[in-house]
C-alpha cells in the first residue's frame, strides 16, 4: 500500500456528509476533548498493576499523530 492511499484530503469527510469531532465540537472543542480523553486514558493506565510504559507511550503517539 502506498502512502498516498493513507492521506486524506481536507474537507473530504464533510463532502461525504460524515460527522467529525471538529464539526460537532469546533476545532478548539475537539482539541480540548482530545486532551481530556488522553489524560483520562493515561490515568486509567497508571492505576493498573502492570508496567504501562509502552501503553502510555502509545497513548501519547495516538494523541499527537498527524495525517
What can you tell me about this protein's structure?
It is a single chain. The protein is mostly helical and 67 residues long. The protein has one domain. Helix content is 63%, strand content 0%. It contains 4 helices and no strands. Helix 3 packs antiparallel against helix 4. The longest helix is centred in the middle third of the chain and has 21 residues. It is elongated, with a radius of gyration of 15 Å. The mean pLDDT is 84. It comes from Listeria grandensis FSL F6-0971. This is Putative geranyltranstransferase. Keywords: Transferase. One of its GO terms (molecular function) is transferase activity.
Offer a quick outline of the entry.
By secondary structure, this protein is mostly helical. Helix content is 63%, strand content 0%. It comes from Listeria grandensis FSL F6-0971.
Give a quick set of tags describing it:
transferase activity, Putative geranyltranstransferase, 4 helices, 67 residues, transferase, mainly alpha
Helix content: 55-70%
Oligomer classification: single chain
Number of strands: 0
Domains (count): 1
Helical/strand content category: mainly alpha
**What's the overall geometry?**
elongated
Mean pLDDT over all positions: 84
Order of secondary-structure elements:
HHHH
Tell me the radius of gyration.
15 Å
Percentage beta strand: under 5%
Report the total helices: 4
| N/C terminus separation | 15 Å
Q: What can be said about the biggest beta sheet?
A: none
Protein name: Putative geranyltranstransferase
Organism: Listeria grandensis FSL F6-0971
GO molecular function: transferase activity
Keywords: Transferase
Amino acid at each position: 500500500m502506498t502512502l498516498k492511499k493513507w492521506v486524506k484530503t481536507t474537507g473530504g469527510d464533510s463532502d461525504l456528509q460524515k460527522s467529525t469531532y471538529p464539526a460537532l465540537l469546533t476545532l478548539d472543542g475537539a482539541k480540548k476533548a482530545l486532551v481530556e480523553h488522553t489524560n483520562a486514558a493515561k490515568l486509567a493506565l497508571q492505576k493498573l498493576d502492570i508496567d504501562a510504559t509502552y501503553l502510555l507511550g502509545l497513548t501519547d503517539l495516538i494523541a499527537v499523530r498527524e495525517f
